[in-house]
Design brief:
The chain is of the alpha+beta class and 306 residues long. It has two domains: 141 residues, Butyryl-CoA Dehydrogenase, subunit A, domain 2 (Beta Barrel), CATH 2.40.110.10; 148 residues, Butyryl-CoA Dehydrogenase, subunit A, domain 3. The chain is built from seven helices and nine strands. Helix 4 packs antiparallel against helix 5, helix 5 runs antiparallel to helix 6 and helix 5 packs antiparallel against helix 7.
Amino acid sequence: MRAVDDGGVTGDLRHRDARYGTDEQRSRWLPGLADGSEIMAFAITEADAGSNSHRITTTASRDGSDWVLNGNKTFISGIESAQNILVVARTEDARTGTLKPVLMVVPVDSDGLDSARIEMDLMLPESQWSLFFDDLRLPGDALVGEEDAAISQLFAGLNPERIMASAAALGQARFALDRACAYAKERSVWRGEPIGTHQGVAHPLAQSYIDVELAKLMMQKAATLYDSGDDVGAGAAANIAKYAAAEAVAVAVDRAIQTHGGNGLTVEYGLAAMLGNSRLSRVAPVSREMILNFVAQHNLGLPKSY
């Protein structure tokens, strides 16, 4: 897996640039993002905003033809491998005076950008960072797409991120189940029969297999809807797929370790290190509680709860 997860963060940015960038931006960024020679991180999360992207306080202000960026971000993946960062900021609407989101491409070596690595108790393919923007000056063409369309660009771009996060979670789940089934076919404790003959071992693994297959179908539905341009339908399906995949991988890894007994906690079998990463899927990108809020409001028509 590439740092910054070439199929995840950078892949998500390929979708944003392909659909919303100018012709010049498409020519500049898409070839490198597609072949992996360019890595672009994505920065939306802020410490005081959490899951509420409407509380983002990083601002982009006009100064002549330039932009000036101020603010901070946290839990930003893979800065150590990226050449640029797609930053979600807010700028003032000239007509109403209210703040609206904008997307800015920021080179990692920009003056006015400081970063600090966050020490994580997880085995991840990339590091997590806090970023600090202090009067960071950008040219006018650092703005991605149209200034007035940034909110639709932002939320439409979250759909492929959730689809790809679902795929990553399901890959982990399949790996864990493969390990568990191989062990259950060989390990013998009672009467010379493999432990996989016992329903107490077999049924939990079978249930996880069903959960993984169902989540995969929803992921494929979400991808199909997104590719067809149905952002509304893709939004619901992507959220449901992300929820289902996160639950499936968390349970599958736990059951795989249980199948191995004490061996499941050894380095040799490679499962214990997956515990934290599988649990991460329930938290990011987008927590399961926010997904349930979305489904309750948009799919069930219930009153907004936050």
